[in-house]
Amino acid sequence: MISARGRVFLALLLGIALLVVIVAFLQRRFGPHRSGLDNPIPIPAPPTPGIANPSPEPSQTPALEPPPVSTSPVPDVYPAPPEPSPANATPNPVTPPPAFVGTLKLIVPVAGVQPNQLLDTFSDSRSEGRVHDAIDIPAAQGTPVVATADGQIIKLFQSERGGTTIYQLSGNQKLIFYYAHLQRYADGLTESRFARQGEVIGYVGDTGNAGPGNYHLHFSIAVVSDPKRYWEGTNINPYPLLRNP
Ligand SMILES: [Zn+2]
To answer: Ligand 1 mean position to 112 CA, how many Å?
Structure first.
């Protein structure tokens, strides 16, 4: 038998629980941190910050908590990455690729370019003390860019530095392939499309900070621990992986 005091305590507890639920509901509905999945329209790219902005602003990082109903490890809609891209904010040129990388059999992501034509530009310096952390593959304007491996296209993003870019998540969800300075996307390319290795996903251009007429594909590979934070991976050198697939 519950005592009168116990009943009062229980009622109080229930009241508090109800209040918490109402507050949580209101925050979800009207709060500023809406999850991407609440929104039927993909989150637009953030406004490009000033050029003198070498590091990603934490405030630009969108809310990342997946909704409680989602059980899928890969959300349908990915938030926009914070600038800057393409160079990663935490360069680590000495990171050896994980063992599984060698089993991927990557192909050169530019049509008609042979592995022995590639140049290793991974450790090259870039502006503002950054390291390139990627490979540049020169090619004529409009040359097809193909998927280096099977994997889901998770983000199509207009970046200040990278221009027209694609983020692709490897089939094992451990790597991000990043394609930048594209002239344009392949017709019909959408986020969440699963691209097969060799499939045309875009065309070589000079968008972003490539420099007018400096047509090339900027291509990087990052090891990610969380596919939802796909811009935070550790870049590994694509050169040996494309050279000796
Ligand atoms: Zn580059």
So the answer is: 19
Domain that holds residue 173: 74-243
Query: Which residue, among 189, 179, 183, has the nearest Cα to 203 in the 3D structure?
Result: 183
What distance in angstroms lies between residue 222's CA and the mean position of ligand 1's atoms?
14
**155 and 92 share one domain:** yes
User: Does residue 54 fall inside a structural domain?
Assistant: no
pTM for the full predicted model: 0.66
Q: Compute the half-sphere exposure of residue 4: CA atoms within 13 Å on the CB side of its CA.
A: 0
Read off the pLDDT of residues 154-191 as tens digits, 9 standing for 90 and up: 999 999 999 999 999 999 999 999 999 999 999 999 99
- Residues, CB within 5 angstroms of ligand 1 (ion): 134, 136, 218
Do 118 and 17 have their domain in common?
A: no
Shared domain for 197 and 85, answered yes or no, is yes
Q: How many Å lie between the centroid of ligand 1 and the Cα of residue 161?
A: 10
Tell me how many domains the chain contains: 2
